[in-house]
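User: Can you recover a sequence for this backbone? Please restate the input before giving your answer.

Assistant: Of course. Working from this structure:
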């Protein structure tokens, strides 16, 4: 078993209008440098990004962008979104491995009135249902977010 980590961050920039949908979708992704030695042994490049890290980052990024859209449609303002995402690579049967679980840990800064924890959880569930990356994989995706508004 190995864990693969990425951090995804987005922030509203000056002059952007979140409520009107006029905000940049660009965001940053940083990786923990957990290159898989099980595949290439001593030839692993520690500074490289491996496919497992890219997969967990893609799941986080898709969830985040979908969440931002749904929060805006629901009338909530978001000024920043950060996620520390972890994926677990496990042996699923002899000789076969898969990223079996990805845990998202979004931390959201709200503008104006923030939704209550139940509404935040509902927005995350809807984002998960709409995220095309999550719909493309068998990996279990869990949101372990601090659900209280900031």
């Amino acid at each position: 078993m190995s864990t693969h980590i990425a951090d995804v961050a987005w922030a509203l920039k000056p002059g952007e209008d979140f409520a009107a949908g006029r905000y940049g979708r660009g965001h940053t992704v940083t990786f923990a440098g957990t290159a898989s030695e099980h595949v290439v042994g001593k030839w692993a490049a520690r500074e490289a990004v491996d496919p497992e890290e890219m997969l967990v980052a893609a799941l986080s990024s898709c969830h985040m962008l979908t969440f931002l859209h749904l929060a805006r449609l629901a009338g909530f303002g978001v000024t920043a979104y950060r996620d520390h995402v972890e994926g677990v690579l496990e042996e699923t049967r002899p000789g076969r491995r898969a990223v079996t679980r990805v845990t998202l840990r979004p931390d959201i800064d709200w503008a104006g009135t923030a939704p209550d924890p139940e509404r935040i959880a509902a927005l995350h569930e809807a984002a998960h249902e709409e995220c095309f990356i999550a719909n493309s994989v068998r990996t279990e995706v869990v949101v372990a977010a601090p659900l209280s508004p900031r």
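That completes the design. The first helix runs from residue 37 to 40.
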